[in-house]
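User: I'm putting together notes for a lab meeting next week and I want to include a structural view of one of the chains we've been expressing. I don't have a solved structure, so I'd like a prediction I can at least talk through. The sequence is below, exactly as it appears in our construct file.
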Amino acid sequence: MRPRLRDLGVEIGTLPTGSNNAITDVPGVQVGHSSLVRDEPSVVRTGVTVIVPRAGEGWTETAFAGYHNFSGNGEMTGLPWIEETGLIDSPIGITSTHQVGLVRDALVRLAVESGGVDAFHLPVVAETWDGWLSDADSFPLTESHVREAYESAADGPVAEGGVGGGTGMICHEFKGGIGTSSRIVETKSGTYTLGVLVQANYGRREDLRIDGVPIGRVIGTDEVPSAWDKPPSGGSIIVIAATDAPLIPIQCQRLAKRIAIGLGRVGGYGHDSSGDIFLAFSNGNRLPSGDTTWKVEVMPMSHMDGLFHATADATEESILNALCAAETTTGHRGRTAHALPVGRVRELMG
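Assistant: Thanks for the context. Below is the predicted structure for the 350-residue chain, given as structure tokens.
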């Protein structure tokens, strides 16, 4: 088992982490993966990751949410409804570019089968492209993979690296994928948890920084080969932030904007061909479906600074956890994405 970033002696920021240092430290949030790795009839390295905002209540209660489109060469379904109402009422799926529709439809079917009270469903499903390591044009995922990810969703530690939607992803020319982190934040309104999960599939080697150190320039392609024949100018990253702080939609949107700070620290610039889309939600209020009047608590805007720090720091660490956890992967057409050499990183950071 490969180490996480903190196992290398590197700590991002000053805020403490939750018990698992994962998005699942936010009460009620669960994560599940389904990974598909096979060589016949075509070489496939893909999958789907599902985030459940409210365990046990995903189809009967909503959560306030907001998003930020940092660079729009990508897809996240359901955003017009979030923009209109500030609400999310279903699990969140993250997968490969060509399978967004399948995952979205499978989540709709799950909603209907699970007794979702709404007359229609507009789930959130986001993507990054895994076609360099996986035969994306073979459309390998099925509804059963979405069900597996949803049914396996749990709290506690979260598998990272080349798993679920991150199975075939590449980050800063190393193997990338899923990463997560959390922070405990003391505010004037109370103490809350903020967690982040990323699907990282972006970046050039020379831009990679770890806690400010230009690791990507030190560990060049002469030492660890690039995953790409010719590195693309862009790439994509999906970032989901969750908190139990009592936030309304505009405050969730403010959190989503701060995700860009963490991405920038690691070396993401939002290039023209990048799909960098961020979503933040709060389950700090109970919002049952139906005609019941909601009684909502709202954190004052002036109490949010700690959450801003937490969002940036947890995003930065989530990306680096994805890089640390991912293992060398050979896939479509014999292409290989090499793992970040964590022993070398430990040496350099020391």
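A couple of points you could mention at the meeting. The first strand starts at residue 30 and ends at 38. The CA atoms of residues 206 and 217 lie 5 Å apart.

User: Perfect, that's what I needed.
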